[in-house]
Design brief:
With about 210 residues, the chain is of the alpha/beta class. Helices cover about 40% and strands about 20% of the residues. It has seven helices and seven strands. The chain has a seven-stranded mixed sheet with strand order 3-2-1-4-5-7-6, with helices on both faces. The radius of gyration is 16 Å and the shape is globular.
Length: about 210
């Protein structure tokens, strides 16, 4: 894991993120859990731990400065991305990770347990059926659906003044053309990933 540690540290430096040694250890432990469970659960197409550092950890952490505290929902979290890496680095924020795939939520629950994350709740549910105990200041999604669908499916979860952050690859011009909500596009550079990345930000303002 030394190569993974070096790559992660270099990536964190490039993102100008300073984290404690115990958080760095937890991020690497999360990769090890993914590698272990991937064989049986097929959590991710990425098999190489070094690739996981860039594609899963650094890609997730690149959006960290754009989150609004204190309650964050990760919708369609899959193997716990970006929610688990973000929760490790933001222990004072509350995270709820939602996915409809029972196998994946089972893994995420196990990861939360093994990593001793006190700030994460895992919910096995379809997003449209998920009823939150309290609304969220940030809802984040990664490769979850088209923009119009994402806005429609998550609007019941966002607090007034809250933000929806959709992680996308290259700019989804067609999806944005169909989007009725006001949005802004934030270019994202994830260290170790050559592909284009962007974050589509939609604010929720209730009128009346």
């Amino acid at each position: 894991m030394d190569a993974c540690r070096d790559k992660l540290q270099q990536g964190l430096d490039a993102l100008a993120l300073e984290i404690h040694a115990c958080q760095l250890d937890a991020l690497l432990a999360f990769i090890q859990l993914m590698v272990k469970w991937n064989q049986a659960y097929n959590l991710t197409a990425v098999r190489d731990p070094l690739d996981m550092v860039a594609i899963h950890l650094l890609d997730s952490l690149a959006v960290l400065p754009h989150l609004q505290a204190p309650r964050i929902a990760d919708i369609g979290t899959g193997a716990g991305l970006p929610g688990i890496p973000l929760a490790i680095c933001l222990p004072d924020q509350d995270f709820v990770l939602v996915d409809s795939n029972a196998k994946k939520t089972r893994f995420v629950r196990q990861a939360v347990l093994e990593l001793k994350l006190k700030n994460v709740e895992v919910v096995h549910s379809r997003v449209e059926l998920f009823k939150a105990k309290a609304l969220f200041s940030t809802v984040i999604t990664r490769a979850f659906a088209g923009m119009a669908d994402i806005v429609k499916l998550t609007e019941h979860l966002l607090a007034e003044g809250g933000v929806l952050l959709a992680m996308k690859g290259r700019l989804p011009e067609q999806e944005l053309a169909e989007l009725k909500a006001a949005y802004s596009v934030i270019p994202i550079k994830a260290p170790g990933i050559d592909a284009e990345r962007c974050l589509i930000r939609v604010e929720r303002h209730l009128h009346g």
